[in-house]
Amino acid sequence: MQQLLNQLIQEGYFHGAPMELVYAGFMLLAAFVVLSFFVAPLAGITSWLERRVWARIQSRVGPNRVGPQGILQWLADGIKNLLKEDIIPTAADRRLFALAPYVVFAGFFATFVVIPFGSQLIVADLNIGILYLLAITSLVVVGILMAGWSSNNKWSLLGGMRSAAQIVSYEIPAGLSLLTIVFAAGTMSMQGIITAQGWAPWNWFLFYNPFTFVAFFLYFTAALAEGNRTPFDIPEAESELVAGYVTEYSGMRFLFFFFAEWGNLYVIGAIATTLFLGGWQIPPVTDHPILAGVLQFIVFFLKAYLWVFVAMWVRGTLPRVRVDQLMSLCWKYMVPLAFICLLGTAAWMVIWPQGNRLASFFMFLIGLGILGLFLKRVSFQIRHARPVLYLKPYI
Amino acid sequence: MSAVGEYVRDITETVTTVFEGMAVTFSHLVRRPMTIQYPDRIPKPVQETLPLRYRGILEVDMDICTGCLACERVCPISCITIGIETSKETKQRTFTHFDIDICKCMYCGLCAEACPTGSIRHSQEFEGACYNPAGLVRHFVTEPVPLYKPKKGGETDPTLAEKVETGLKYLDEFASPEKGGGAGTEEG
Question: What CATH number has the domain spanning B51-179?
Fold first, then answer.
C-alpha cells in the first residue's frame, strides 16, 4: 500500500500538495474502503450466520426470509436501526453518551491496521504489532465504561463495571499466551510471526510444543472473555442486567456496539490464525504474485472464519458463568497455566533453540487424535439421538 | 496434596465436559430442525392435517339443513340467526338468511351437537383474519333456499345422499355423546 502511494507521488500525481495531506487523505480512503467493503459486510454476515448456526444447534431454523436463506437479514436490521429514533436519556451525560459507541468501535476497527491478510496485504507491518493489538483493544474498555457511566442507569453502570473488570483480568492470560508465541518467533511483528511458521500444520506454532498448544486454547478462551462473548457475556447478561451497558442505547449507536462485537469475533479469529495457525502461509503452488495474494487471502480468511464459527458454536453450547466463577477461572486457573506455558516455552527454547521438529510432528499427531476422538463422540451423539439427520446447510 | 488433586480435577473436568458438550451441540447442527414454517413453507396446509373433530370456524351445508332452529336456540351467545319464510301460495318454506357471526362464536360445539342432520359443523378452517368485523359474519344463504325434508326410507338423490351421510358421520364422530369420545361425554 505504502509502496504504491510512494510510486504515485514520485510520478508526480500530487504535485504541489503537502505530503502530510496526501498521506492523510490516502489513509482516510483506505479506512473507508476497508470499512465499507470488508468490515461492514463481514460483521453483518457474521451476525446472520451466528443466528443461523445458533438456531440449528437448538433445532430451530433461524432467519431465512430476507433474501436467499435470509442472507440479507443484516441489511434489513441495519436499515431498521438507521431509521430508528436516536434517544438520549435526559439524565444521561450527553457528550460521553454520544461518544462512547465510537470509542468502542474505534478500538475494534483500529486492529485491522496490523492484521495481515496476505504477504503484501497489510496496512502497516508494525514491528510492535502484538503490543499495538493489546493496547488498542484495551480502548474498548474505555468506551464500555463511558457507556455504562454516562447512561446514568444502574444496569448500565453494573454492566460497564463488570465488563471493565473482566477485560482487564483476561488481558493477562491473553497477553501471556501471546507472549509464548513472541518467544518462539523472536519478533512482535505480525508478518514476522507468520514467516517464522510454515504452510504445513506441523510447522505452525500451534504444534510448536505442548505449551503453545495449551496457550492457543488459553488465548481463545481469554479472547472470548475480552470480546464479551458467551459464556463470558455477564456485562450484557439479559436475565440480570437487561442489556448491560447498551441498555439505554437505541438506533445507530446501539448498532455500533454490536457491529464492534461481531467484527471483533473476526479479529479474534484473525489473531489466533496469525499467531498459531500459520496465517496466510500457502504451499508453493504459484509464482504469480496476484494469484498467490488471492490464495493467501482465501487461506487466511477461511482459517480465521473457522474460529468465528467455533465462537458461535461455543455460544450455543455453554451457559453463562457467574461473576465469581469468571474471576476464579481467570486468576486461579488461566493465569497460572499461561505462566506455565510461558516458562515451558522459554525452557524449550533453551534446550532446542531451533525448535524440535519431531516434537512438532508428534504434537500434530496428537491434535489429529483429539479431532478424531471428537468426531467419534459426534457420531455417537448422532446415532443416539431421535431427530433425523439433515445434512443440508439450508432449510 | 488433596488441594492439588482437586485443582487438577477441576481442570480435567472443565476440559472434558466442554469437549463432550461441544460434541452434543455439533451433532445438532446436522439434525433436522423441529420448526414447522407456518404458513407458507409446509408440505400441505395445516387445515388438511387437522382431525375431523377439530373445532374450527362453523360451516353449514344448506342442502341438508332442515330448518329446525335447534342450533339457533341452543347457541349460548346467539351468534346464529336464521330467517325462514313460508310462501302464501305453495306453502313452501324457504330460508331468507342464515348468518353466523364468527366474532361472537366461542366454538363450544353445542350447535353441532344439537343438529339432527349434521349440517352445521365445525370445519378445519381457522384462518379468519380480516380488516372489518362485518367481514366475519358468514352468510350461508345468498338466494332463498328451500328447507330439506328427510325422506322415509333413506335419501334417493345420490348427491344429497352423500351429503346426508357426511353429516351423519360427523355427528357420529363429534356430536353424539353416547358413541364415546363425544363432546358431551363426562364421567359420572
Answer: 3.30.70.3270
